């Protein structure tokens, strides 16, 4: 399929709008867009993510085994260039972020080899950021 690549949109629950602003805005460096008392838009590497106040809906608990790790089933994130991924991993480590899955190279030597890391936001939403040495391997089998 040769469709243009367009930004995605995802909305997710948070326990606190202020915590979301501190995490997504201050720590991850996502510029803030529109907002209201119960929601706030962020620009996550050109994609629109929206934190909605919904404390009873937060948290990620189910996992599936992938490359020997328990990957949170509910998660979102972005695919970055390798320099962006490395910079973010170092920034998160320096900030003392607890990783669900520490930064590492998954599927080493196989189709789809990728750098990946998983961590939680303050509301327990799982995020994955990954990078490919060869982006052409994004959907490789």
What percent of residues adopt helix (DSSP H or I)? 10-25%
CATH fold-level topology: 2,3-Dihydroxybiphenyl 1,2-Dioxygenase, domain 1
Number of helices: 2
Could you say what the CATH architecture is? Roll
Q: Give the H and E element order.
A: EHEEEEEEHEEE
Name the poorly predicted regions: none
Walkthrough of the structure:
Pfam families: Glyoxalase. The chain is α+β, with helices and mostly antiparallel strands and 141 residues long. The chain has a single domain (9-137), classed as 2,3-Dihydroxybiphenyl 1,2-Dioxygenase, domain 1 (Roll), CATH 3.10.180. The chain has helices at 17-27, 82-94, and strands at residues 9-14, 32-36, 39-44, 47-53, 63-66, 69-72, 75-80, 99-106, 114-120, 126-131. The strands form three sheets. The protein has a four-stranded mixed sheet, with helices on one face. A four-stranded mixed sheet has the order 7-10-9-8. A two-stranded antiparallel ribbon has the order 5-6. The model has no long low-confidence stretch (mean pLDDT 93).
Q: What descriptive keywords fit this protein?
A:
141 residues, alpha+beta, 2,3-Dihydroxybiphenyl 1,2-Dioxygenase, domain 1, four-stranded mixed β-sheet, 42% strand
